[in-house]
Amino acid sequence: MLESVKIARRQSEIRQNLAELAGKDSPAEDEVRKMDELDREYRSNETRYRAALIAEDTERREAGDELETRSAQEWAELMSGFEMRQVALALDEGRQLDGQTAEIVTELREQGGFRGVPVPWQALETRAGETIASGSPDPVQTRPIIDRLFPDSVAARMGAQMISIETGAVEWPVTTSAVSAGWADGETANVSGPTAYATTDRSMKPDHNLGVQMRITRKTLKQSGAALEQAVRRDMSGAMGAAMDHAAFLGTGANGQPLGVITGAGTYGITSTGVDALASWAAFRAAVTRFMAANAASSPDAVRALIRPELWDYMDGVYIDTGTAITEWDRLVKNIPAGNIAMTNNAIAAPSGSPEATSALLTTKAGGVAPIFIGAWGAVDMIRDPYSDAQSGGLRITALATMDVTVARPAQLQLLTGLELAAA
Q1: Would you say the pTM of this structure is higher than 0.70?
Q2: Secondary structure (DSSP) of 86-149
Q3: What's the CA gap between 263 and 159, in Å, rounded?
Q4: In the chain, what is the greatest distance between 2 CA atoms, to the nearest angstrom?
Q5: Between the CA of residue 386 and those of 103, 389, 398, what are the distances in Å?
Q6: Phi and psi dihedrals of 34, rounded to 5?
């Protein structure tokens, strides 16, 4: 029982005893002495009661924080124990899944829609201590969920949010009306009339399937052992992450691909500005100013930039004044932190034209809303092909994922085109 509750009950008993004694017309000497003792105890208990409440309030806050994060921590710990090696052996030999892997697969199967073994997206994240290239794996600790996107994904660095969808299409109503306030022009005048509240639906549909096929030889299955865990996760994560990044920004919207935000800038309503001049901080500054004028960003450090390495190479070699060592790149990172700049040769098309020119995409989070949404339906479906490698005894598996891309508010993105890398 809480100490404050015990004190409150004792205070109630003291009040009851005092009421009985105070009701007597001529109390005896011992009764008067008892009233004094009860009165002193009551005043002392008041101080103890306040102290108990303060101490228990801190305990309640700590317990509340623990309860709020306990489910997320338990889920992260459960996901950290998922073994890709068990999935490969189950598809190859029919071996039964066990432990946390079996528990997670059973949970995913209840959602339905899987022909093979469902694999959660978090299982594709590289764990701490795993080797990236050659060498023997030497895991030190298992890392929990890093992000809903792959940790090194360009889309993740640009503020994209990955959303898990169970079934069906999903829509987000986004406010598009401009509600304004107005002053009453005079003592009896009315304020401005009501403005219609309009929204536009941004939908994502399960029309785009991304797949990667892996071929595992019989020697690998028999010889690698636990190293197969890291190999499968690393290769699948790299292949699917690169394909996701490319589709999120350069997807054509045809041939099964979703419509990327750069390719579909006009469709999404993203402001595209043709610089058509040598790349400089001034071009980026103008885009940042447009963000701030539209209340999409409060300062330049709230903006993220996606550029090609060739753009960095050019801007870092252009000095604003021959007498200083300050380059255009120095001016850029002075305002937009280097941690907010992602360089890629996968998510932006290579420089082209004469003179060569490239593009850059700027994003920002407004009100905590991500600029780009990437929807993933269910988990990754691992399906075995029992025929292609039957003669050699190998294992060929296909990982299928259903995904789509959309933009919630186009005001949170700016596309700069025609950033020239050489003089005409």
Answers
A1: no
A2: HHHHHHHH-PPP-HHHHHHHHHHHTT---SSEEE-GGGGSPPTT--SSSS------------SS
A3: 18
A4: 112
A5: 25, 7, 11
A6: -65, -35
Strand partners, 210: 401
How far is the first Cα of the chain from the last one, in angstroms, to the nearest whole number? 82
Residues 215-228 have a mean pLDDT of 73
Is the Cβ–Cβ distance between 92 and 203 less than 8 Å?
A: no
Q: How far apart are CA 65 and CA 88, in angstroms?
A: 39
Angle between helices 99-109 and 29-80 (to 10 degrees): 90
What percentage of the chain reaches a pLDDT higher than 70? 81
φ and ψ at residue 390, rounded to 5 degrees? -65, -35
Interatomic CA distance for residues 286 and 365, integer angstroms: 18
d(CA 309, CA 90): 43
CA-based nearest residue to 275, from 359, 364, 361:
359
> Tell me: the pLDDT tens digits for 310-339?
999 999 998 887 677 889 999 999 999 998
Quick count: other Cβ atoms within 10 Å of Cβ 289? 12
* Residue 80 identity (one-letter amino acid): S
Beta-strand ranges (E) seen in 323-371 are 341-343, 357-364
